[in-house]
Specification:
28 strands; 49 helices
Length: 1326
């Protein structure tokens, strides 16, 4: 039973290099099944088993732990009470703390409070799971395993006490389930992450002195008869102690992990909520208050937990019970070995039995005569078979299948025993799953590590597994689902991810071997490419080539090569295909097995999305393989020329290469290898095409050919690996020829010594490096590709790739001569096998090499020329000065109208934003790291405002909001279109008389544009209901109103012909209907005049009910605007559409006449937006100022004015410069400046101890500072200063006591200075 308990834990994975702790806690991936299969495959070789007798599960690789200098703790119940105080103390000790809690909301509150209490805490994360729901515990623990969560401390602190009789979600007695079974499962699943020989770990179980009166009643473990809350609590706490002692015995010394338990004392925490359930209310309060008098505070109660968890005194102690921070004796029953062992076995059995309860009766069906496949049928590979085993086991553990525990144990035993059943390949999963079911009945065959076949009976016996037999229902359950496809898919996706990184690195090496021009890989060239991954791939290749002199501008090179230039696009497509295939694969891995329906029909319908995603992946991988082979051919074709060039260069024996004719056989051998790889690619294409055809022809009721698609993707992975091996070998061979063959170890050492001795001549002068620059300098590769080359050369030479740092090894030098034409074709074939093995994605060496290369890329990034993200801007001081002026004017208008200011988060729940922007929803930025929530950056300020009103129950409000918003748009910087930009919003929400708030909003817009003085403008205005009526009259179907509105909205950017074509060709509108729309959208004019025309008796809009009502609203609005003096700039324009879905009434847009910058402000009425969040409609209307375009216009106007005047824009608002003549005046300048600051004057003083007068005057003129306060020794003695007016060129003497008053009067005449006139600087110098 213990083996089953640990089954999932035994397959825990190594840490993902570079993965963050947050990702460990919140992400899911297909990586699990793939590496689980590999880990299980290797476990039996090393003799590691996951049974209790073997000391627990094997440890997870501590890749992350080796790189961190802090410890990570998981505390269940860490959001309150003792757990919260324990977390606080550990944070103060620089732990990274994970709070295990049931409620996301309460966990977030606790995290926020801890951050306040422990400023600068290293990190606090949440692990949301419910100990009363084993499925949620298992799901979180699997994610932690999958990412190799670095864990040094587990504090099982959560619990309940003396609660009324109730059951957990799994049907267990609540106290036993929460206090013991939930922690039992969590601990066992996290053991692989805690058992790390290179770093000590601790497990702390918080028990209670109540265990002294506890007793384990195996006859009624669930306290079903005569339930007593205190008796059940004592039993649960005794179970905590027994579990701790048994765990300590089972942990091997190699695990480097201890387990202890403790009594925290009588503590006043939330546990007391069930203390007096049967007492009346007037008894409970005073009794609880009396209890508080002798109870410990949570902080006091946590001291023993903190001591056991982190004190040096507890280091190395295991199997102890602590009270008041010291080991003491526990109850007599707690030391009963038979009880503790039985409790362990029963706990493990209960954990699975509740998920898969035994049937009331079991009738085994007769085993089949064979496994459903003959010996000639193709079978799945060993990794695929083991991945299928794991996925089927996972589906059984996830669900309530009704399968017997013996079946689950048998599957776990097969994995732990290293067994790989022989499973026939097919289009769908039915055939291999039938073979798996037959294997569990003792029929079939298995494949050993060496590929040898053995009978099912022999394999089961060797693994110590008894064939459980199957009932008809169990057989139906095991043969249902897509576990085999999911397992192969997981292997293909994981291997594909590794090979994609390999492809990028090998392409970089090929660029150097070809001495190619790679300017096409620059970021500027890739930004317009269609694949999102192209930029990422290009950046990775450039990072590997950092420091290389083998690329760009080499005369002997191939120049620009399409097979290299297209790498970012092709590899980017692989990245997208991997993501597309991973999503349905993850869904299959999370699927729960379902028993057959009453009529015997299976209930698990396979999704065709898995097959579709895998076929897309197969196609992308094969394209990458074909591109790799084109680079290989280009390298091989150049080898004779490379050899000839190396021979012509001449030099010593070390540098000389073979003659050109000797390179021809080598090139032919490489071309032959490339041809063989191309045949594998072609075979993969045929396999993918066949699977694609089967998917297209499959009927809806048929099982999708998911396994055929998974096999195609798996074969494509193998083809890509073969192609990359050929390319890698060709690349290192070419580079070896360019550099010259290596000598033996002695010769190399002698050459190195001679080079050192010849560093200077007899006269002590250094050798002329320029003369010997090309003699034997070799090739200068990029920092990443140099390491890759060394790794591949060791692999090609038959050495250990992990020892690639020792390039001067004599044996290696001898072996490497095969790469410089001395070994012939046989040596090349041997080298190819070595390189292929080094690039095997199922091995460990390539992952370690890629991690090292990733570190080089990241290190190189710090030295590259910095650049700003596309669609964003930095602002210089003079630009910020202009922005501040604009903000001040806009805010002044808002406040003048009585608006209040609010703020909302820069990100919102994605569901808040989606469905509000029509076709523009695709421009929303989604966040990758979402902390358990799906989040997006805000697209505008209106939708967050509507959410704000709905959430807080706001009534009437007039608000303004100035903040940044984000849109994943194609930037047009010249036209003021950015991805990050400010919006200035003014909105009125609530119930008001019709059109009154609309009129004030438009008045605010007009006032702002007048105050900003941007130039002549107009405000185009329309009504959404009027627009809908136009479309209805024209004959547009209602379901196309919004798409057609989006097309009409482009009329300010595109001519009518282009918009009409979009309506007809893209939106599917009949041409006559589009032409009818065109008759309406050309109508525009002065508001009152056009209104009168549209309301004429026979006008179509006057006859339509919706438009007639809209026209009456507009008549009212125009009257109000006339009263407010704001009607002048308004233009009634029926082409104005505003593409956002949430508008319901008046819409408007402001544009500058004669300026090609688009709209500078827009808005409208949105009466239904708030109701989308609260169900209660709140009318609202608002306007948003396109402040970025306003800034651009203001900046252009001010720069033109400054240029005309021969000046520049001021960066500061300094009014006075405090200057001095002579030394020793620093303190005096500070005192004067402080007096000016205290009076509200804007002043500066020089930092130099004895500044020169020309420097001080020059600074004042450059910054446009109007006044200088100047003094020297004589002025100090007289108690006066000189005040210089730089504009007027005048000077006056002012008593120091009167200086502040005089300057306050003077600076009033210099308000709003925005330009520095440099003519004054010239005058000052004169």
């Amino acid at each position: 039973m213990a083996a089953c308990c640990f089954a999932t834990g035994a397959l825990a994975l190594a840490s993902a290099p570079g993965s963050s702790l947050r990702a460990c806690l919140t992400s899911q991936t297909t990586r699990g099944a793939a590496q689980c299969a590999q880990t299980a495959q290797h476990s039996s070789r090393s003799g590691v088993r996951c049974s209790a007798a073997a000391g627990g599960p094997p440890r997870a690789t501590a890749g992350q732990a080796e790189q961190r200098n802090y410890r990570v703790a998981l505390i269940t119940g860490g959001n309150t009470g003792i757990g919260f105080e324990t977390a606080k103390a550990l944070l103060q000790q620089d732990y990274y703390v994970v709070l295990g809690c049931r409620s996301q909301e309460r966990g977030e509150a606790a995290r926020a409070k801890l951050r306040e209490l422990v400023p600068g805490a290293r990190g606090i994360e949440l692990a949301v799971f419910d100990l009363a729901d084993l499925a949620s515990v298992r799901a979180w623990a699997l994610r932690a395993q999958d990412f190799g969560l670095p864990l040094d401390l587990l504090v099982n602190n959560a619990g309940v006490m003396a609660c009324p009789q109730q059951a957990t979600k799994d049907g267990f007695e609540y106290q036993l389930g929460v206090n013991h079974l939930g922690h039992f499962l969590l601990t066992n699943m996290l053991l692989p992450l805690l058992s790390t020989p290179d770093r000590s770990a601790r497990i702390v179980n918080v028990a209670s002195s109540a265990h002294y009166f506890g007793h384990i009643n195996f006859n009624d473990l669930q306290s079903a008869t005569n339930y007593d809350p205190w008796r059940a609590y004592g039993q649960a706490k005794l179970a905590n102690v027994l579990f701790t002692y048994e765990l300590a015995r089972r942990l091997s010394p190699a695990a480097n992990c201890t387990a202890n338990t403790l009594h925290p004392g009588v503590v006043n925490t939330e546990l007391a909520r069930y203390l007096l359930p049967d007492k009346p209310a007037f008894w409970q309060t005073p009794l609880l208050e009396v209890t508080k008098l002798f109870a410990l505070t949570p902080e006091q109660g946590a001291q023993t937990s903190i001591h056991v968890a982190s004190s040096p005194e507890a280091e190395g102690l295991s199997g102890k019970y602590f009270d008041k921070c010291r080991p003491v004796s526990s109850s007599k029953e707690s030391y009963d070995l038979d009880v503790s062992r039985k409790l362990w076995e029963v706990s493990a059995e209960l954990r699975v039995k509740k998920e898969s309860p035994a049937p009331k009766s079991f009738t085994a069906e007769a085993p089949p005569s064979d496994a459903g496949a003959d010996g000639s049928s193709p079978c799945l590979g060993r990794p695929q078979a083991r991945a299928a085993l794991f996925c089927k086991l996972l589906s059984l553990v996830n669900g309530r299948s009704g399968v017997r525990l013996a079946v689950v144990e048998a599957l776990a035993g097969l994995l732990n025993g290293g067994v790989a059943p022989s499973l026939p390949a097919g289009d769908a999963d039915a055939q291999p799953l039938s073979a798996l079911a037959a294997f569990l009945q003792g029929v079939g065959a298995a494949v050993g590590h060496d590929g040898a076949q053995q009978t099912a009976a022999a394999a089961l016996a060797a693994a110590g597994v008894e064939a459980p037999g199957l009932s008809a229902a169990e057989h139906a359950l095991l043969t249902d689902g897509q576990s085999v496809s999911a397992g192969t898919a997981a292997l293909a996706v994981q291997a594909g991810k590794l090979l994609l990184s390999v492809a990028n690195t090998v392409a970089a090496l090929s660029a150097e071997a070809l001495q190619a021009d790679i300017k096409a890989l620059d970021a500027e060239c890739l930004e317009a490419q269609p694949h999102k991954g192209a930029l990422e791939v290009g950046e990775e290749i450039r990072g590997l080539l950092e420091g290389s002199r083998q690329v760009n501008g080499r005369k002997a090179g191939v120049g620009s090569l399409p097979a290299l230039n297209r790498a970012p696009q092709v590899h980017g497509a692989v990245l997208e295909a991997l993501n597309a295939a991973a999503a349905p694969a993850k869904a299959e891995l999370a699927a729960a097995a379902l028993p057959a329906a009453k009529d015997g029909r299976p209930q698990q319908a396979g999704s065709p999305s898995l097959a579709a995603g895998l076929l897309l992946l197969a196609t992308a991988l094969l394209k990458a393989a074909r591109l790799s082979l084109k680079r290989s051919s280009a390298i091989a074709a150049r080898l004779p020329a490379v050899a000839a060039a190396a021979a012509a260069a001449g030099g010593d024996a070390v540098a000389a290469a073979a003659p050109a004719e000797d390179a021809a056989p080598l090139a032919a051998t490489l071309q032959a290898a490339a041809t063989a790889a191309a045949d594998a690619v072609d075979a993969g294409k045929r396999q993918a095409a066949e699977a694609s055809s089967k998917l297209a022809l499959a009927e809806e009721e048929d099982s999708p050919p998911s396994l055929a698609a998974a096999q195609a993707a798996y074969s494509a992975v193998a083809a890509l690996q073969q192609a990359l091996a050929v390319e890698a070998l060709a690349g290192v061979t070419s580079l070896r020829l360019q550099e010259g063959k290596p000598a033996d170890g002695g010769a190399m050492a002698a050459a190195a010594a001679a080079a050192a001795a010849n560093g200077s001549d007899a006269g002590g002068k250094k050798k002329d490096k320029k003369k010997d620059k090309g003699a034997a300098a070799g090739v200068l590769l990029g920092k990443g590709t140099a390491q890759l080359r060394s790794y591949l050369e060791h692999a090609a030479a038959g050495g250990d790739p992990s020892a690639s740092g020792d390039a001067a090894d004599g044996d290696l030098a001898a072996s490497l001569r095969c790469l410089s034409l001395e070994g012939g074709g046989a040596a090349v074939q041997a080298g190819l096998a070595g390189v292929a093995a080094a690039l095997d994605p199922e091995g460990h060496a390539v992952a370690q090499q890629l991690a090292a290369l990733r570190a080089i890329i990241e290190a190189n990034q710090a030295r590259r020329k910095p650049k700003i993200a596309k669609g964003a801007r930095d602002f210089q001081p003079d630009q910020m000065a202009i922005r501040e002026v604009a903000f001040a004017k806009i805010t002044g208008v808002f406040k003048r109208h009585g608006a209040v200011s609010i703020d909302t988060p820069v990100f919102e729940l994605r569901e808040t934003l989606m469905g509000k922007y029509g076709e523009d929803s695709k421009l929303i930025y989604d966040l990758a790291d979402q902390g358990g929530e799906i989040l997006s950056l805000r697209y505008d300020l209106t939708v967050p405002f509507a959410r704000f009103v709905a959430l807080h129950g706001v009534g009437n409000i007039k608000r303004y909001h100035i903040a940044k918003v984000y849109r994943r748009d194609q930037p047009q910087m010249a036209r003021g279109r950015y991805r990050e930009f400010f919006q200035c919003d003014f909105d009125i929400a609530g119930s008001y008389p019709t059109m009154v708030p609309d009129a004030e909003v438009l008045k605010v817009l007009v006032e702002i544009l007048d105050d900003l003085q941007l130039g002549e403008y107009e405000v185009k205005l329309n009504h959404r209901r009027l627009l809908d009526a136009m479309l209805d009259i024209a004959g547009v179907p209602p379901q196309k109103f919004r798409p057609i509105c989006s097309a009409i909205d482009k009329l300010d950017k595109e001519p009518w012909e282009v918009v009409r074509a979009e309506m007809v060709e893209e939106k599917g509108l009949p041409g006559a209907v589009a032409d009818r729309i065109g008759e309406f959208v050309v109508l525009r004019g002065r508001p009152m005049e056009l209104l009168e025309k549209l309301t004429e008796a026979m006008h179509p809009l006057a006859l339509h009910a919706e438009s007639s009502a809209a026209l009456e609203e507009l008549r009212l609005l125009f009257g109000f605007l006339q009263s407010l003096g704001a009607l002048g700039p308004i233009t009634f324009d029926l082409s104005l559409a505003r593409g956002l879905d949430y508008y319901t009434g008046v819409i408007y847009e402001a544009v500058l006449k004669g300026a090609n910058v688009g709209s500078i402000a827009a808005g409208g009425r949105y009466d239904k937006l708030v109701g989308m969040f609260s169900g209660k409609e709140v009318p609202a209307v608002g306007v948003s100022i396109g402040i970025e375009r306003v800034f651009a216009i203001m900046e252009a106007q001010l720069r033109a004015k400054a240029e005309e005047a021969g000046g520049t824009i001021r960066e500061t608002e300094t009014e006075v410069l405090v200057a001095s003549i002579g030394g020793g005046m620093q303190s005096r300048r500070m005192q004067v400046a402080a007096d000016l600051w205290a009076a509200g004057l804007k002043a500066e003083f020089g930092y130099k101890a004895a500044p020169k007068m020309p420097d001080q005057l020059g600074y004042a003129l450059k910054q446009g500072i109007p006044y200088i306060v100047l003094f020297g020794e004589s002025e100090v003695e007289e108690g006066v200063v000189k005040v210089k007016d730089l504009d007027a060129g005048s000077e006056e003497v002012v008593p120091l006591a009167e200086l502040v008053a005089r300057l306050q009067a003077l600076v009033k005449t210099k308000a709003d200075r925005r330009i520095v006139y440099h003519q004054r600087e010239e005058a000052g110098k004169a």
